[in-house]
């Protein structure tokens, strides 16, 4: 079944979500988030102007408080995004392949993954230098735009690294491949976290900061993730042989879509009639949506639906740990870089601590480069560079 077939089989209520998003975007349904994922703030501002977020913010004087506030918000969303994907893929105790949005593995061979990851590390180095250059020139809008690109790149690098770790482990003796299930645990779990994060942003953001653009981005993010959950669950329902799970998937999706429709109606209302009352309604109905999504994902990730992870030997575990460890060093450094950018954005240039913050930022950029080197070595050697014997050291008799 292709995606169009699964969309046609959606239970009542999910069509309303898609229609609501199309109306908000003027008839467009660009996949701004989804499993590829762009963070909050990356979506184009289509609320009538037709300009992108960067084009709209370019009219603001460079280094203004609005630009600093936007950069700080972008830093928060990018940090959460990178940490989430790392938690789900790099810190997981299970050995599973990473699938693309069309349901096929990211790559067929370890060498393909290795080459892709190494190419990503080179792109990351270029972006890191560009971010520092733009920051030194006081171009906070451009820094935010590059940071969004960096977060997407880190997510792609993390996914490819996790898949490479799986394939590398599988090539060692004594390993058995993963048995696919009806549901991709990584995809649905990430969707749940994305919805929770968007609802949390709405809950903690002051009313004055709930701009039409931010509200549009939040509703787009939520709609896209609900649609992804609907597609995955509908396909799982069609493939179920037992009557109970087949019907339960449908009812869980219907509950989620109904809650989503009610929530999006509240978001639309706070956009047209901003007040603490309309905002509190959003918070109220977001709780029901989060609960419905959590119930669906909890059911969908039961053991009988997610398949069986690969059986890995000690040698395979060593390869996997080396690659995942290298990727984690890159993600950790990028998170530190993002935190450093946030510190700079939240303080005036005249701050007595600004020199320290900029020094930390430079150190974080160096750590990104070091992490990329470690990851590249781990992929080429299939072992951790930290455990390899030193180069050019001869044994002493």
Automatic annotation (TrEMBL):
Stretches with biased composition (Polar residues): 51-66
Domain of life: Eukaryota
UniProt region (Disordered), positions on chain: 1-68
Gene Ontology MF terms: actin binding
Gene3D superfamilies: Alpha-catenin/vinculin-like, Talin, central domain
InterPro entries registered for this protein in UniProt: TLNRD1 (IPR042799)
Biased composition (Basic and acidic residues): 20-33
Matching PANTHER family: TALIN ROD DOMAIN-CONTAINING PROTEIN 1 (PTHR47133)
Protein name: Mesoderm development candidate 1
Record organism: Knipowitschia caucasica (Caucasian dwarf goby)
């Amino acid at each position: 079944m292709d995606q169009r077939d699964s969309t046609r089989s959606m239970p009542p209520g999910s069509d309303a979500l898609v229609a609501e998003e199309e109306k908000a975007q003027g008839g467009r349904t660009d996949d701004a988030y989804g499993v590829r994922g762009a963070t909050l703030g990356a979506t184009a501002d289509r609320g009538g102007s037709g300009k992108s977020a960067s084009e709209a913010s370019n009219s603001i004087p460079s280094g203004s408080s609005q630009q600093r506030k936007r950069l700080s918000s972008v830093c928060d969303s990018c940090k959460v995004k990178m940490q989430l994907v790392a938690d789900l893929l790099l810190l997981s105790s299970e050995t599973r392949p990473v699938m693309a949005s069309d349901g096929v593995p990211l790559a067929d061979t370890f060498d393909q993954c290795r080459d892709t990851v190494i190419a990503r590390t080179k792109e990351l180095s270029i972006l890191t230098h560009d971010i520092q250059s733009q920051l030194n020139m006081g171009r906070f809008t451009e820094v935010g735009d590059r940071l969004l690109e960096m977060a997407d790149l880190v997510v792609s690098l993390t996914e490819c690294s996790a898949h490479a770790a799986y394939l590398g482990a599988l090539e060692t003796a004594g390993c058995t491949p993963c048995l696919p299930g009806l549901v991709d645990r990584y995809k649905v779990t990430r969707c749940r976290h994305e919805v929770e994060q968007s609802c949390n942003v709405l809950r903690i953001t002051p009313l004055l900061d709930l701009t039409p653009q931010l509200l549009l981005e939040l509703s787009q993010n939520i709609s896209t993730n609900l649609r992804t959950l609907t597609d995955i669950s509908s396909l799982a329902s069609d493939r179920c042989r037992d009557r109970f799970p087949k019907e339960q998937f449908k009812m869980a999706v219907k509950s989620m879509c109904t809650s989503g429709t009610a929530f999006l109606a509240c978001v639309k209302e706070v956009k047209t009639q901003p007040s603490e009352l309309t905002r509190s309604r959003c918070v109220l109905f977001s709780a029901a949506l989060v609960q419905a999504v959590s119930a669906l994902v909890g059911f969908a990730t039961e053991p009988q639906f997610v398949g069986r992870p690969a059986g890995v030997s000690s040698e395979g575990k060593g390869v996997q740990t080396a690659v995942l460890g290298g990727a984690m060093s890159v993600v950790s450094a990028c998170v530190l870089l993002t935190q450093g950018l946030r510190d700079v954005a939240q303080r005036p240039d005249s701050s007595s601590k600004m020199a320290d913050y900029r020094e930390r930022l430079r150190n974080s950029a160096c750590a990104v480069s070091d992490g990329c080197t470690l990851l590249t070595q781990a992929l080429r050697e299939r072992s951790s560079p930290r455990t390899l014997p030193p180069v050019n050291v001869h044994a002493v008799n």
